[in-house]
Amino acid sequence: MTELLLHERQSIIRKRLADEGRVIAVDLAQEFQISEDTIRRDLREMAAAGLCKRVYGGALPATLADDNTLLSRLSIKPERKDALAKAAVAQFRPDMTLFIDAGTTNLAIAQAIPTSLPLTVITNAPMIAAALLDHREIDVVMIGGRLERKSGAVLGAKAMQDAANFRPDLCVLGSCGLDIENGVTASFYEEAEFKRFIALQSRGVMAAVTNEKLGVPTPFAVIPLAKCGPVIVEHDADAALVDMIGRAGIEMIRADAL
Prior knowledge:
By secondary structure, the protein is an alpha/beta fold. The chain folds into 2 domains: 6-67, Arc Repressor Mutant, subunit A (Orthogonal Bundle); 78-254, Rossmann fold (3-Layer(aba) Sandwich), CATH 3.40.50.1360. It has 10 helices and 15 strands. A 7-stranded parallel β-sheet has the order 6-5-4-9-12-14-15, with helices on both faces. Strand 7 (146-148) and strand 8 form a beta hairpin. Helix 2 (25-32) packs across helix 3 (36-48) and helix 5 packs across helix 6. The model has no long low-confidence stretch (mean pLDDT 89).
């Protein structure tokens, strides 16, 4: 599709929102043959006009914005999350103690763990614990506290108290955004507080990041990139950005092509 004028693009986006209930920034960029930054600018302008609600990776109709829950995000690009999961699980070793944070990519990681791999997995995400029920070689430890439904994570004082008892070999950290200046970031203060605490309790930190979160900071800092690695990215992640992060000393692993 040849490049369209701004109002033409936004008209198509509005129709797509009405027909499909969501739009994905990376898909729109490919369709319109423009940069993701341009699409994000379009979506910001539309959101400011009350025409949509920005969410990570794209937008929802304004009337559906409150449904940006973990369950609603499960259907977004599952094959890309599966590719990230395969690359992440390749880093796990027998008898490791892992903390697996909440999030749809991390759920895919939990689902990809071989049933024969002996591990201890600590999690604050009920869906991740449930995904490991048939893994008889894995000891699953649930962190307790208040369930925050949008993220699917157990957060709050009780969760922090439980997390203080663990020193995982590796924290598989869920990220709402990751960039070289701000490191790993989160959307909400309480979420960032818990992520930071468990990351600093861990001997190592891994993050698997979809394209729409790479290079895009969110409001609350979790940890600087210097404390994170490896970072797993998609096969077609922005090469210049991946190279820049790698030059800062962060181990970068590309998932296989779909």
